[in-house]
Specification:
Blueprint lengths: L7 H12 L6 H7 L6 H53 L4 E3 L4 E3 L29 H9 L19
Antiparallel strand pairs: 1-2
């Protein structure tokens, strides 16, 4: 069975599921139900569709990474160009340039620069505490006999598709 062998009704249901963001409707639930007669055929069809969708997800991840890289390059280019323009305006003692197409000026702002954080008075400090469960470590400890009411190791089923 190939991707093209998947029945159109299965494809339509899967496409509708994607459009719904993965949320099932009652109509989709009925269309995608398994029955004994079509069990094997549907399983193969859905499995192939999952492989296809996973391929699309990989392509989207690659596209997102490439677009993020392009975005960062453009942001860095803007930062570099603005820095050079500011240096030039300061060097030529120009505070403002105005043409019919664009206005460029040097703005002033105030920004706090902390020189020695350990010398800041306590009234101006906020304590931030974060905790995170070390899942793998805790799971191993429980499997090795740690008794706790805080967590349990559950055995679950997951579907494997190749």
């Amino acid at each position: 069975m190939t991707l093209f062998d998947i029945e159109m009704s299965y494809r339509k249901a899967i496409e509708e599921l994607i459009e719904n963001g993965g949320a099932m409707t009652e109509e989709l639930e009925l269309q995608m139900q398994f029955d004994e007669k079509a069990f094997s055929k549907k399983m193969c069809g859905y499995g192939l569709a999952i492989k296809e969708i996973n391929g699309e997800v990989d392509l989207l991840d690659d596209a997102i990474a490439e677009l993020t890289k392009k975005k960062k390059a453009r942001e860095q280019t803007v930062t570099t160009m603005k820095g050079r323009m500011l240096q030039a305006m300061l060097a030529f003692d120009q505070e403002k340039i105005k043409t019919p197409f664009i206005s460029i000026w040097i703005g002033k702002s105030k920004k706090l620069k902390v020189l020695h954080e350990h010398l800041i008075p306590a009234a101006y400090l906020t304590e931030v505490i974060t905790q995170k469960v070390e899942g793998a470590k805790l799971k191993e400890a429980i499997e090795n006999g740690l008794e706790t009411d805080a967590a349990v190791v559950e055995e679950t089923f997951n579907l494997q598709i190749r």
